[in-house]
Amino acid sequence: MIEPPGRRERKKAATRQKIADAALRLFLERGYDDVGIRDVAAEADVAVTTLFSHFAAKEALVFEQDQGFERGLVRAVADRAPGEPLIPALRHEIHALVRHCTAPEAAPVRNLIEASPALREYEESMRLRHAESLAAVIAADLGVPETSTACRTIARFAIDAYSLAREAADPETAVDEIFRMIEAAWGASRLA
User: Tens of pLDDT along 7-18?
Assistant: First the structure.
């Protein structure tokens, strides 16, 4: 049974969300480059040090759901039922991510990211980190070294599937098409 978060954890989560909401509001109103950290802290009514205790960088304010996305990917592998195949579990999670990020209400944030070289660069580094976390959990699940080329490749393919599908005219169909190729590659590897 999962313990409900205590008062302290709930307060920290509420403060984090308040900061993220204030930042996004300001970024969408004024533009990412025209808003400073002090502006965000003032809008959220917190100290700059408090802001940095929740977010390591200005870019992280835009990607406040990053940790949740990464945990979802890891759980898709680690928490699947015994005997449940790996690739369909990953496809299911990537479908959820794509649906979330292609929903109409996500368009302003996507436009904000596309308009900023700093945010695009941060997103790319985030994707690489997600791929490494995913590769590690796949390798652990299979009992092979984390450096396994097959595990790292499938993880990168899954992360890239998200990006490619998000940009497609029909994202849901694109995820399925990409994952047919991933499944074929995984089946061809000696680890499948």
Answer: 898 999 899 999
Rg (CA), the chain: 18
- Angstrom distances, CA of residue 68 to CA of 65, 71, 97, 178: 5, 5, 11, 23
- Using alpha carbons only, what angle is made at residue 171 by residues 158 and 30, rounded to the nearest 5 degrees? 95
- Provide the residue count of the chain: 192
Q: Which two tokens stand for residue 148?
A: 């396994």
Q: Could you read off the pLDDT of 31-76 as tens digits, one per residue?
A: 999 999 999 999 999 999 999 999 999 999 999 888 889 999 999 9
Sign of CA dihedral 41, 110, 76, 56: negative
The contacts of residue 167 (CB under 8 Å, 6+ apart) are none
What residue spans of the chain are helical by DSSP H? 7-30, 37-44, 48-54, 66-78, 86-102, 107-114, 117-142, 149-167, 171-188
Angle at 55 between CA 91 and CA 104, to 5 degrees: 45
- pLDDT tens-place string over residues 155-189: 999 999 999 999 999 999 999 999 999 999 998 88
Measured distance CA(81)–CA(7) in Å, rounded: 33
Query: Residue holding tokens 């049974």?
Result: 1
